[in-house]
Amino acid sequence: MEIFYYVLIMLAAILISNVVNRFIPFVSIPLIQIGLGVIVAVLPLAFELKLNPELFLVLFIAPLLFNDGKRTDRQALWNLRAPILMLALGLVFVTVLVIGYFVNWMIPTIPLAAAFALAAALAPTDAVAVGSLSGRIDLPKKITHLLEGEALMNDASGLVAFQFAIAAMVTGVFSIWNASVSFIVIAVGGIICGLALTFIKFRFLKWIRKLGMEDVTLHMLIQILTPFVIYLVAEELHVSGILAVVAAGIMHAFEKRKMDPMTVKLNVVSQGTWSVIIFVLNGLVFIILGTQLPDIIQVVWQNSGVSNWQVVGYVLLITFSLIGIRFLWIHLSWLIPQLMKGKDSSKPNMRATVLTSLSGVRGAVTLASALSIPFVLADGSPFPQRSLIICIASGVILCSLIIATAILPILARKDESKSDSPRAEKSMKLSVCRHVVEQLSKEITSENKVATQVVMDDYRGRMRAIQKEDIDMSRQREIDKEQQALRLQIVQWEKENTDLLVSQGEAGKQAASRYHNYLDSMEKALSGRGKSRSGLMRMMFKRLTRQVLHPKQWQKAKVRMDEIKQNKEQYEAMFQEIRDLREKNASVVKAKLVDMLDETNQAVIWPLINENKRILEQLKQDRGSIKSRESFEQAKKDVQLQAIQIERDVIQNLFEQGKISRDLTRELRQNLNLYETYYFGSEELA
């Protein structure tokens, strides 16, 4: 039970880290998780975590690398193949050599082979750690693709180098010739093994599908087991399990599948399942780092033979050395080809070079490597300075995360400042609509196909309207403000006309009351007081309180509505009465707008007149078609509700990432509240 409670606490810590990050987005999730791991370590628990190094590699590294390979952007990976290989192979081995000799010179108590092992553990970068940094960091796409491709490849090269260094340290035997030959054999063998096992897996899946075994759960289980099986088989064959899972992941990215219903469903399940697995594994890695820190620091602080300030100095020197080597390598790898081509007049993009250099954050791979260092050598003696090596690796992870968290947002602020420009605002509005359309297209089924297409067409229409907008956003904002004020005036016109129709006996009181509720909702949306999540909760609480305090009135209203709905003819008559009321109000509004129209306000009033025309046309088109449209309207409302929630989440994510300003966020939310009222205002009327 102790293990169960411990795992439960660590999973809870992962959940808490994301909740905390929601309130302090400028602090990266890995740093929060490390801090929570330290808290878990100091709790008075009956269980103490002691990891098996080999288990740590297969449990964390295999699925992480497999997933990275599977979700890689194939085109970007191919386009950036030269710089990626320069970073993933050249920079890794240069880092191992330079940092290895530097560590051995700086700390003589660490043997050269062990120093190479530490350098190899520090060589790979962690794209997940970069992605987990504050949402305010907005790296250019090219740099993002470069970092992802580098992390995918240098994990393999760094870990293979690490394994050779550990083997040399444990056995005491090392030959540069034998190591080179073994490296080629192990590397090529690992790639071939990963490709071969993946091919066998594809053939096996094809065979079981021919047998009629289309169960998504079974196929999902095979997907989850794939990286572990490939890694273990490769290690049993004495080739690189790391390169095997990388090759398998990339081969999965190139897999071409027939888009049948079963495949679509499996893709949806697979995406959700893997996101949870990777989320948990990455969180556990940093939580585990935090749990190990107190013991590691205590051992080093008391028994390492060096002073505490020396250890801090070692960590800082190695961290800045890694950044310096990375900066020089990136700068020279860009400059030398330019000089060879005779393009010495152009200058390197220093900002991009610094961004790429500081984005080389160490994370899960470095920690997994460090913790997998064996406790004893082949002769049974303790591994020299194991605790100090792990302490230095942990310190470098922390320093790289802190430096990236502090500096990258400042460098990226240049991009962020453009978020208020007219073109950027237009681009963000298009991006929101485009994301909703993409998400809805993934949710199309035979039952909701027609309704989903209608909603998607609405969003495409919004995109066309945005694209036609004049770039002079200052004038557009003035128009928007004038239109908003006029819309509020239109609501007042409709209220007054509704009261007039009731007094003249041309509209029923019950229909007018429901229409007033709709106009009140419209007024709240226009004034920025639309239904947020907290507002919806307050409304539900208010209704619940009214039901508890005035049960008789609530019951009477409910019974009255049930009676009306049971009487189909009466229900349709009331609904048609409301529709007639809306049509009469729309006609009055149109006449008032036309009377107001002159040469100075055409840009403000014409869009409202056209909008009013569309409402009138829709009302006339829907007349007498209630029965035939009921099921369609319900399906459409379901899709619209889903689309609104997607749009709300996209706006929130863009705001948290610093890609849109607070003012633009408020404007987008206010527009969304208005759309929501348009979509679901009929629920207030029915």
From TrEMBL:
Compartments, as annotated in UniProt: Cell membrane
Keyword entries, A-Z: Antiport, Cell membrane, Coiled coil, Ion transport, Membrane, Sodium, Sodium transport, Transmembrane, Transmembrane helix, Transport
Domain Cation/H+ exchanger transmembrane: 12-413
Record has Amino-acid biosynthesis as a keyword: no
Domain of life: Bacteria
GO cellular component: plasma membrane
Transmembrane domains' residue ranges: 6-24, 31-47, 53-70, 82-103, 109-135, 156-177, 183-204, 266-291, 311-332, 352-375, 387-411
One of the GO biological process terms: sodium ion import across plasma membrane
One Pfam family this sequence matches: Na_H_Exchanger
Entry membrane topology: Multi-pass membrane protein
Residues forming coiled coils: 554-584
GO terms for MF: potassium:proton antiporter activity; sodium:proton antiporter activity
InterPro entries linked: Cation/H_exchanger_CPA1, Cation/H_exchanger_CPA1_bac, Cation/H_exchanger_TM
Function: Na(+)/H(+) antiporter that extrudes sodium in exchange for external protons.
Entry similarity comment: Belongs to the monovalent cation:proton antiporter 1 (CPA1) transporter (TC 2.A.36) family.
Stated name of the protein: Sodium/proton antiporter (CPA1 family)
Organism this protein belongs to: Listeria rocourtiae
Taxonomic classification: Bacteria, Bacillati, Bacillota, Bacilli, Bacillales
